[in-house]
Specification:
Blueprint lengths: L2 H25 L4 E5 L5 E5 L1 H4 L1 H16 L6 H5 L3 H28 L7 H16 L20 H28 L2 H36 L1
Antiparallel strand pairs: 1-2
């Protein structure tokens, strides 16, 4: 898939999300559930606009901004070596956001948390996809595991992303398993806990291997 095809696919997905949101907006009552507590009880109602078009805007600006970033100064140059992978990540992220938005609107429309249970499944699958692509991303300031040590050394970047990609996949698989076997809140705990653990690991690991990577470059 070329970069142009990826851009049109993202734009098409954003339009599809907007059209689906309009459909839900026209069919929803004047007040819909807008928030659930950790027990799964509705604790706030709101306007359908909040769950449809407003949420669509809040979600869809993310991939559109990511598409625009390569045109900003030196960012495009740093992303040139990862251009195709960067586009794939944006497409996968957009698909996940559309699926999550549909799940949220279904929950609001049906006054049930059941559709929301698909959210950790979607995020788990997204984590697996991104994990498989992480090792293909070259050093840049926008996408990837960005620590002070990965950003200044290609070797540290590559090794951190090689192992980080595997950990992303593990967290994705664990999240999917939790979503299928455990309560919804537990699945989100696994997802967020795994991501936070990965962040801590990335800082430690990139710092730990930097002296050896610097020495290799010095004697190369």
């Amino acid at each position: 898939m070329t970069s142009r095809e990826q851009k049109w696919l993202v734009v098409g997905l954003v339009i599809v999300d907007f059209v689906i949101a309009i459909g839900f907006q026209l069919s929803m009552p004047s007040k819909v559930p807008a928030h659930w507590n950790f027990r799964g009880d509705i604790d706030r109602y709101g306007s359908p606009w909040e769950m449809t078009l407003v949420l669509s805007f809040c979600l869809m600006w993310i991939p559109l901004l990511m598409m625009a970033l390569p045109a900003v100064g030196s960012v495009g140059t740093s992303l040139a070596r990862s251009k195709n992978t960067y586009g794939r990540v944006i497409v996968a992220l957009t698909m996940a956001l559309v699926a999550i938005h549909v799940a949220v609107m279904l929950s609001a429309s049906e006054k049930s948390l059941a559709p929301i249970s698909a959210v950790p499944l979607v995020l788990g699958m997204l984590w697996i996809v991104i994990g498989n692509w992480l090792s293909k991303i070259r050093r840049n300031p926008v996408l990837g595991i960005r620590t002070p040590w990965t950003l200044r050394n290609d070797t540290v970047w590559e090794r951190t992303h090689r192992w980080g990609g595997r950990l992303f996949v593990v967290d994705g698989l664990a999240t999917i398993a939790a979503a299928l076997l455990l309560p919804l809140w537990a699945a989100f705990v696994v997802l967020v806990g795994g991501l936070l653990s990965l962040c801590v690991w990335a800082f430690w690991y990139s710092w730990w291997i930097t002296p050896a990577a610097d020495a290799e470059q010095h004697f190369a």
